[in-house]
Each structure stands twice: as C-alpha cells, then as structure tokens.
Amino acid sequence: MPELPEVETVTRSIARVVGRRIVSAEFRCLRILRGDPDRMSAALAGRRIRGVRRRGKFIVMELDGGECLTVHLGMTGKLLLNGTPGRHTHAVLNLDRGVLRYEDQRQFGKLEVSRGLPERVEKLGPEPLEVTLEEFAARLKRRKARIKAVLLDQHFVRGMGNIYADEALFRAGIHPLAIGARLRRERVKRLHDAMVEVLTQAIEKGGSSISDYVDAEGRKGFFQFEHRVYQRTGRPCVTCGAAIRRTLVAQRGTHYCPKCQRR
DNA sequence: ATCGGTACCTGCACGC
DNA sequence: TGCGTGCAGGTACCGA
After folding, report:
1. Which nucleotide's C1' atom has the smallest distance to the CA of A2?
2. Using CA atoms, how far apart are residues A5 and A223, in angstroms rounded to an integer?
3. How far, in Å, is the CA of A143 from the C1' of nucleotide C1?
4. How far is CA A194 from its chain centroid?
5. What's the Å distance between residue A219 CA and nucleotide B11 C1'?
6. What pLDDT sits at residue A212?
7. Is the pTM for the entire model greater than 0.85?
8. What is the pLDDT of residues A114-168, one digit of tens each?
C-alpha cells in the first residue's frame, strides 16, 4: 500500500489519538516486531501519546518519557482505529479511549519501540517535499544507478515508492533507465518539479488505493484515477497514444511511455 | 559508499 | 476443479 502520500494520509487520520494513553499492547504475530514482545508491551503500557508524525514511509508515535513507537506499513500494513480484529490483526493497542490496530496481510511491516528515533530511520535521505532543487541535483550527481532505482532508494530521498517514481518520471519525460548522474540540469529540475507535484496531488487525493489501501477510518484514496503509467501496461499514453510499456528495474515493475520518456 | 540481486509473506489472476 | 506461475504499495542483507 504505502508510499509517502498513503503514509501521510494514515498519519493524519490517526492524529486524534494524540493525548490518549496506551492502557495495554498485545502482539499476535512476532514477525512484524523489531524486538521482544514482552519488553515492547511493558514499554508501551501506561504511556501517553504526545505526538504522531511521518518520516519518509515511517509513522513515529512519540510517547511520554522520550520513547517512540515507530511503525512501517510494508506492502500491506494498515493502522485502523476501532472496529473488530480480524485474521490479519497482528497488534492491538488498547487506549484509554478506543483501540488502535495493526493489520498486515503480507507481514512485511514492522513495529518498533525505541528511545528516540531508531537510527536507521534517522539516517534516511531528505523529505522529497522539502529537499531543494540544489540539494536534489547535488545528490543525484553522485548516483550512477538508473534513475528509477535511485528514486526508490530511501537514502536518496525518503518516501518515494514504485507508483510515484513511475508517475514522477512520466511527468518529467525521463526514461526510467536513464543514469542519474548523467541527467542534464533542466531535466533534473523537471524531475524535482514532477516529484513535488505528484506527491502533493496524491496527498490531496488521500493517496492511491490499488487493492485494499485505506486510512485509519477505512477511507480509500482517489489518486489511482490520476495514474498515467503505473499499471497501465499496453494501454495508450494519455499524451501521445503510444502503448505504455513495462520493464523491470531493481526487480520492480516499471511503467513508462516509450515515446514521451527518452533517455 | 554504491549497486544489483535475493529473501521475506499472503493472496490473487491467469493458463492449462 | 486443481495446480503451477507470476505478480503485488516494502526493506534488509549479501557479495561485488
């Protein structure tokens, strides 16, 4: 499910837990935990939630006493307010008012409790909606990988994923196999602009609901109707009518228009 | 440091 | 109907 716009939407949709206290925490699946379940439960019980924010694709819940509960949704993770636990409910936070559940069909997500931010979350690249063109260009100069793979690297910018990498490259008119460091200045600017534009619009639409993505209230996003290349293989390009192609970059399905996106 | 490939899971769509 | 294959928003880890 979750790239920056989806994680931002989920983060906003759980904002109302701020100020509530965690009464108890139950874990039903150990695979999604970074750390010992009993120690995590003990560390969470009784803590008040002081803030909820997003960092890249991570959701960080700041607790009393400087502890953080950090959640990554993986591919199919969901944070849900209230409702009933189901087959894929792996964690339940009982709050003094309401319940926050973590569900994850594929179990690629992770929950972690730490003092302050986890180090690997601290070390990510800049936020794509905050990075300046200058810094974006300087970082890109050091990258010899294909631009699609660079955009997916969370140490380059934090929060881009497979959908928005493809959509940003299409809007910038750049071929996904182009080498990052070799992009000319004006194409770098187009990419930076396209990245900001596509992420901003996607957040406004509540993200993309590809199969079952929903926010904490169960609401779907609408940006999937704005996709121009992602999962449109064989269908006509909205700009030129050529058939959209699919290839593999960094083992990820990569969609592009062979006429509009040139190396 | 960076790069590309693999592993980790479940469920669905597809062809035979 | 059942079975095999490929595919799906993710990151971590490996050797080169």
Report:
1. C9
2. 9
3. 52
4. 17
5. 22
6. 83
7. yes
8. 999 999 999 999 999 999 999 999 999 999 999 999 999 999 999 999 999 999 9
Residue A103 tokens, joined? 């569900």
At A29, list the tokens.
């699946």
Mean confidence (pLDDT) of chain A: 97
C-alpha angle with apex A228: A222 to A229, nearest 5 degrees? 120
Å between CA of A181 and C1' of C14: 25
Torsion from C-alpha of A195, A201, A203, A205, nearest 10 degrees: -150
For residue A1, pLDDT beyond 90: no
What three-state secondary structure class fits A197?
Answer: helix
Check residue A161 and report its DSSP letter: -
Which residue type occupies A252? R
- Give nucleotides in strand C with any atom < 7 A to a protein C-beta: 7-12
Handedness of CA A34, A151, A60, A104 (dihedral sign): negative
Which residues of A form the catalytic set?
Answer: 2-3, 57, 252
Strand C contact at CB of residue A139, distance < 7 A:
no
Tokens matching residue A63: 């607790």
Q: Which of residues 79-118 of A touch strand C (CB under 7 A)?
A: 106, 108
Cβ atoms within 10 Å, residue A31: 10
Percent of chain A with pLDDT over 90: 97
Q: Is A55 helix (H, G, I), strand (E, B) or coil?
A: strand
Write down the number of H helices and E strands in chain A: 7, 11
The answer for residues whose C-beta is within 8 angstroms of residue A183's C-beta and 6 or more apart is A140, A147, A174, A191
